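Exercise 7. Given the components listed, write out the predicted structure of the assembled complex. Treat all entries as one system.
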Amino acid sequence: MDSTDFNAANEQPLYPERFALPPIKTLKIKIVDFKAPDFKNIKSSLSGKKQAAEISIITDTPIPARAASPILYLGNNKTGYYKLGEKKNEYLFYAFDFEKISADEPIGWGWNNDLPENIQKTSFQFKIK
Amino acid sequence: MADEQVPRKEKELKDDPKLISPPVLAEPAYQCAKKVKVSQFIPLSQIEITINAVLVASSPVGFPSPNGALINIPSALVAGQKIRARQTVAGITSGWSNEVTVRDHLVDYPAGLPRPVIDPAPVYECGSRTGVNNLVVGANVWITADGVETGRVNGCNDHQGVNVAPEYANNQFVIARAELCSDKSPESAIEKTRGYAYPLPAPAFDTVYQGSQQIRITNIANGARVTLKLNGINQGTSGCWGGSLNWNLSSPLPAGATLEATQKLCGNQPPSPPGTTVSLPCGNLPAPTAYPVQIGDVEVRLSSFVWGALVKVYINNVKVGEGSGSVIPLTQAVSWNDTLLIGQELGTCKSQYLTVIRPLCVAPPIQANPSDLNLFPVGTMEYSRGDAKGNVFYPGESDGDSVKFNKRLALLKRSPIVFLAHGNHVDTDPSYLGYDYFQKQLAQMGFIAVSVDCNKVNYPNSGGGVANIEARVDLIIESIKLFQSFDSAASNIFSGKIDFSLTGLMGHSRGGDAVVMTPELISLSGVTIVSVLALAPTDFRGSITGTDVNPKGFDFMTILPAGDGDVWQNNGARFYDRCSARRFKSQLYVHFTNHNFFNREWLFDEGLGPVRMQRFEHEEILSAYGCAFFRRSLMGHNTLSYITGHALPSGVRTDAVHLSCKKFKQLTVDDHEQTGGIAINTMGQATSQTGMAASEFPFKQGAAGSFDNSFFGNTTGMVIQYEKHNATFISPLKGLRDLKGKEIWIRVAEVFGGSQHVDTGFQLGLTDSSGFTAWVDSSGVGGIPDPYPHPGSHKTMLKTLRFRATCFQQSNRRFRISEIAAIRIRCNRTKPHPALAFDDLQIVS
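Answer.
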């Protein structure tokens, strides 16, 4: 037995439902100039990217914390890089090869390790404004 | 599985009364000691000790349990002397024991004696005896309370009870220390005495039988005095360090004798209620049970036996061992097709049943836990400079915050350093504190163990995708840089103390992803990453961008929780498959474990599938295998055997650990990566198959041409489907090969076909130059586990089976192990036949 066994929170095991992604309430896409993350010791793999399709989503509730990463599926393209937006539950995802994404591609929503059948379909399509 | 047993009366045993096993002489024996330790002797025998073949001591002994006997010798041992022992009982003398060469303890412990441990702790007010562990045999050990010596044993055992006088008062600071050859150990950790939460419990007894002359009393408070009565007659009072007490009686017990024990600590408190037991008649004496035996073993290790019993071991009905205690030395090695029978006796009383043991080709012995190496006090320090934050555990002069670095160790050499990185979690929790148990263990053995605080890039600021892994890499490197500055500073705890050419990394979850990426991206001068341990890692590059990650240039281990409810695809399997390691790579697929319980700050069991093991059992797996990994990789210790599966760490749920391992610079017969498909092996030889459909497939999720969707690695392997009994696949070697002393390693798994199978397996055959084939069954080398029932997916997770060449050699005398022409896989199980997946067929030295 270790000390954490005495923690009352331990009596509430986390069930998989906790990993459910919240529904996307709004989604907007625009082309923006892109600045890659600035690291002190390494070069970002996104450092060559100058422009991106910024996909702003607002979800019902915050995205849960877990090891896996939330992904916007733009047709067959996975978009994983995001940062927090300014609004509540706003997340800004960035798609880089957006020219290759067909207009009106359906947008899916899931974790990077979801099986294809588990990726949520959304009511949104890839439309750049 | 319960041991098979047979009634003794059904066997005609040849019990040569003149054959008794030699005792076991404990290793190591150190210079300056005036005692040597002997174990596994027959109770009440006479032990003789020779040094350089001259008889120097002859001494009667009591019972071998719980911890052998110390024999006085007339003068202090000198390095290079050779010691042996033998025993005589009832006029019968054994052969000589193992020979032990005396060593200088500074060879094994260059920085001085290991640190004593007060064990068991805590220490109670009024305690009269204290256990001290982690000692070297023959050293002097003493205890101080508030700085005053209150107990001493000159010439101690490795775990020694020390009587203290006066009894402890409350709130005293108790310390143990040891000395050998005028070399003093570090002080033990301080134990502060405390009052016992009375009332004391009633002592209990292990089952006692007619003929017992040694009994074990349990449930004893640390330091209590135990009083024993036999049929109402007081047998005396003995101090006990706590837990249990083995008590030697003056004569064997009759059936129906009543034993009663009480315990007492402080005089102003009542004694415990009495615990009682009655000795059972002879007919109740059970057979001892034993751990699995493998071919070539020269001893049998017992998993249960009656205290003080004489244990006899028979091979094919002929006695080959007679001793006592937990290990019985044999007079001959166990061979192929031998049957071992084991019984025990108390005086004239013999167990009615014998345990039957059929030796296996591979049954690794349980050995010391690699995380138990405890040499130094541990200093700790929080650090924070810019983005470099975290804490560090290191070998200290004493325990405590920011204490000085251990001077003796620093004089010897710089220390290897390991950086740990946690994964994504809410940033309000200090996730970096969650591996403190592992950091402490690493520091105790001489590592500097740094846990990097990655909360700057944790939830809610974690962001997603590969960039978040890069952000973690950046933080890891920032901490490495900071420690470089500590090392080069004129005045710092770590000034000149760190060997960055021996840098290791351990990362958990997204941190595991990051430590695999770090060696690719780091460009700090003077830093060489030698070892990487990825614990339940994500693989964002693989799963998001579709990039194959190819770890290379370092020793690699990944631990994959089979019940992981988060990284459920066990992405580390991809790293393992693609890794081109420096010297070796290792994968532990661990049943009944989850993602979180390796980190003490991650409280929730997010796991899926069968009930997960307890948190401390998760930690023991990381501790044992992680320490074995870093000790081997960064310190050169002899711990690779735990990683290859040649030894099992004690105290660990090894039954749940399924190892894969690949050593480099070995002879690969077939890794299925060559061109030419299934028809050609990696040696360029034409394969053949009969009665089966064997083909090569990508063992990767979503890959075109996959056998099915149950493969989560990233390699190419072979899947065999068969209907015909004894369907066979033949892989010829390039030229005849001498396999004497070698092993054949192959990775294998059952491909889940919709139902579990009770008998999945195959036979591996070696064909010699004359065309003769010898076979060994997979069940004799550990077997193939059922696919783990993870609700997300049954995975085809391969594990490495090791077939020792000696097993084939012993199966038939005509067989020419020095001239092997081909390796065969024969599928001989009854229907239904699940498909079998194979990879990495190697001949290993």
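Discussion: Residues 1-15 of chain A have pLDDT under 50 and may be disordered. Chain A touches chain B at residues 1-5, 7, 9-10, 12-16, 18-19, 36-37, 39-46, 62, 65-71, 78-84, 93, 112-113, 115 (CB under 8 Å).
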